[in-house]
From TrEMBL:
<dbReference type="InterPro" id="IPR001296">
    <property type="entry name" value="Glyco_trans_1"/>
</dbReference>
<feature type="domain" description="Glycosyl transferase family 1">
    <location>
        <begin position="174"/>
        <end position="336"/>
    </location>
</feature>
<dbReference type="Pfam" id="PF13439">
    <property type="entry name" value="Glyco_transf_4"/>
</dbReference>
<feature type="domain" description="Glycosyltransferase subfamily 4-like N-terminal">
    <location>
        <begin position="13"/>
        <end position="164"/>
    </location>
</feature>
<keyword id="KW-0808">Transferase</keyword>
<dbReference type="Pfam" id="PF00534">
    <property type="entry name" value="Glycos_transf_1"/>
</dbReference>
<protein>
    <submittedName>
        <fullName>Glycosyltransferase involved in cell wall biosynthesis</fullName>
    </submittedName>
</protein>
<dbReference type="InterPro" id="IPR028098">
    <property type="entry name" value="Glyco_trans_4-like_N"/>
</dbReference>
<dbReference type="GO" id="GO:0016757">
    <property type="term" value="F:glycosyltransferase activity"/>
</dbReference>
């Protein structure tokens, strides 16, 4: 079976991390081709290192691009794949149209979050999803939203949860990697407005004003970085915040932290949340995407309403007040949840049924 996975980019980010992890699979009966409409980068190099084929079109990705559709059509026609699986808005739009034009027998479109489309965009993607043989969402919340907006028949709308590639080697990171005299908080994220990093910065400022020693490490890069750096300066918490930029391996930062925080306004299935939980890092997340399906508040992590700065501050303060053993137990419970429910084997089993049209 030949499967083409198409995303907008293969540089860095959540989709890219998933593609890298998928490229570690070994099955002689399956040929994977990982493609990007735009540029490659860190992810494409890792996929190549894993022995999988990568194709970077370096084409226009903004919707619509007739040239991109044509280039994809030519490629699909030449490759004759059994499945074309697209992920994300730009890949879904261009890839589904090209794949159907090329006569691909199974075209799978995957929505990775809960986008806020306008009227015209909703009409356009309604057509795209009708043309798809299957439409996937990373969580029940995403699929419920797709059903509500597009009335996709439930037999073609499938939940395919994300996964973690397990490595049972415990990392060697120590608390000293960050700030040993502080309660250390970490986020691993693209620096974009939707991620709402501002709310954690505001909470850190309030905690600092109450003489609670906290240090917040932000792992990631993006076009919102300068805005966040300006806010750090305005809040006068330069000594309590560190931007470390994109890290190809964020695990040492997760393992060296007391608390991982995800504060997105919207999310599908957060790779970084899953990685934090798997590494036993006590984790706090807003109630977005798959988070409520993974975490039970105060048992294997903590939940807070999105876009509520005061609630986030109070929740972090209450977590800091817990004894370290309780936090450790909650972190271990989070790890157990991931190991038991979000393996790559389960992910591939679900995908294979869809690819074979047996779902």
């Amino acid at each position: 079976m030949k499967i083409i996975r198409l995303s907008t980019f293969l540089d860095f980010g959540g989709i890219e991390s998933k593609m890298v992890n998928l490229s570690t699979t070994t099955n002689a009966q399956v040929e994977w081709i990982f493609c990007a409409i735009g540029k490659g980068g860190v992810a494409s190099e890792k996929i190549k290192a894993n022995g999988k084929r990568v194709v970077l079109f370096e084409s226009a990705y903004r919707i619509p691009s007739l040239l991109t559709i044509y280039r994809l059509y030519r490629f699909f026609k030449a490759e004759q794949p059994d499945v074309v699986h697209t992920s994300g808005a730009e890949a879904n739009f261009h890839g589904v149209l090209a794949a159907r034009w090329a006569g691909v027998k199974n075209v799978v479109a995957e929505e990775i979050g809960i986008p806020k489309h306008g009227f015209l965009a909703q009409k356009i993607f309604g057509v795209i999803f009708k043309l798809s043989h299957y439409v996937l969402g990373e969580s029940k919340m995403v699929c419920d939203n797709l059903y509500k907006l597009y009335a996709i028949p439930k037999q073609k709308l499938k939940i395919v949860s994300n996964f973690v590639v397990f490595s049972f080697e415990k990392g060697s990171a120590q608390k000293e990697t960050l700030q040993k005299d502080f309660f250390t908080i970490v986020s691993v994220s693209r620096l974009e407005p939707v991620k709402n990093i501002e709310s954690v910065l505001k909470a850190a400022a309030k905690l600092t004003s109450e003489k609670i020693p906290v240090h917040y490490t932000i792992v990631g890069e993006g076009n919102h970085r300068k805005v966040l750096e300006a806010l750090v300066a305005a809040l006068q918490i330069e000594n309590n915040v560190t931007f470390v930029g994109f890290q190809s391996d964020p695990v040492p930062f997760l393992q060296a932290s007391d608390l991982y925080v995800l504060t997105s306004f919207t999310e599908g299935f957060s790779n970084s949340l899953a990685e934090a939980l798997y590494n036993g890092t006590p984790s706090l997340t807003t109630k977005v995407g798959a988070a409520e399906e993974i975490i039970t508040d105060n048992q294997n992590g903590w939940l807070v309403e999105a876009a509520d700065d005061e609630a986030l501050f109070r929740k972090i303060k209450s977590i800091i007040a817990l004894d370290s053993e309780t936090r450790k137990q909650i972190g271990q419970a989070g790890r157990n949840t991931i190991v038991e429910n979000y393996s790559i084997d389960k992910h591939l089993e679900t995908l294979t049924a869809i690819y074979l049209k047996k779902a």
